[in-house]
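For reproducibility, we list the full input for the heme C complex.
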Amino acid sequence: MAPKTLGRWVATAAAGTTVAIAVAACGSKTVTTTVTVGAVTNGGATPVSHQVAAGAHDFNQFACAQCHGMNGKGGVSPAVPALRGAASHLTVEQLTTIINHGLGESANPKAPYMPVWGQVISARQVSDLVAYIRAGLPAVPGATPVPIITAQGPAVEGSLLYQRYGCVNCHGPNGLGGVPNPQSPDKSIPALSGADFFKEFNTDQKILDVVRSGSVIGRAPIVSMPHWGGIIPDAQLQAIIAYIKTLKTS
Ligand code: HEC
Ligand code: HEC
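The corresponding predicted structure, in tokenized form, follows.
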């Protein structure tokens, strides 16, 4: 028996809907397959669009979750608001401006402030983050913080924390630096490696102090060093320092 030739067909369905497609093969046998159109399913929960899924991954990559809590639920520090209600009191334009330009920094930060992201995150990533916040910050499979291993020593733990807290986005892989910060005096975000860095930051205490306090070098669009005191526990700060000290010293 010759297989039936299937004609070209087009299915139209809204993103997120699940459709059953029955494919008649060899005349007698019917194969049914289920596909979800243009969307990502999250373990039985409501499927989200590709844009919202991308925003959820960005929310972890750029450590928004480390300050605002998983899925923006808050509870990390009294200085950082939950984001669950942000979509109801902030427009797309306001959310975009806050992410690009930051919020609440002072010349000498005593508490966490909202960093300036406009130089570091693309316009596309910012609009994905806004879509994610407006969708109510749902759980999305795989959009989770980098897991931390503590049993393999502080340098390994620190290298994972360097990713989890998003240091890598600003200071580069291996602390190489070079991320453009055109309006700043140095024109780029500094390296955390090399002779100049280790000459200035020649004790653990000096590294600890700057990571805890942050350092505001100017207003948006200048990117400053976030204040991590009250966000990163001391034991993790020590692990990050142990990792930084494994990087190139010359
Ligand atoms: C170092 C901690 C920190 C990180 C990382 C951080 N934020 Fe924030 N964010 C804050 C603080 C603190 C505020 C409150 C600022 C104020 O009101 O003075 C804030 C405020 C906001 C607001 C305004 C909320 C409101 O209700 O007014 C939005 C939206 C926001 N952040 C989104 C993000 C996104 C998206 C990311 C990741 C790209 C991010 N934040 C990363 C600390 C952080
Ligand atoms: C949003 C971008 C951004 C993020 C995220 C960030 N930094 Fe920074 N960091 C900066 C900038 C900009 C400076 C330069 C500040 C200055 O010159 O006063 C800096 C300075 C530093 C310095 C001092 C180096 C120097 O030469 O001044 C250290 C150490 C440091 N950061 C560590 C970290 C660690 C560890 C993390 C993650 C927990 C981190 N940073 C996350 C932007 C960032």
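The CA atoms of residues 6 and 188 lie 58 Å apart. The pocket of heme C (ligand 2) is lined by residues 115, 120, 165-167, 169-171, 181, 189-190, 192, 197, 201, 207, 210-211, 215, 217, 223-226, 228, 240 (CB under 6 Å). Both points were considered when choosing residues for closer inspection.
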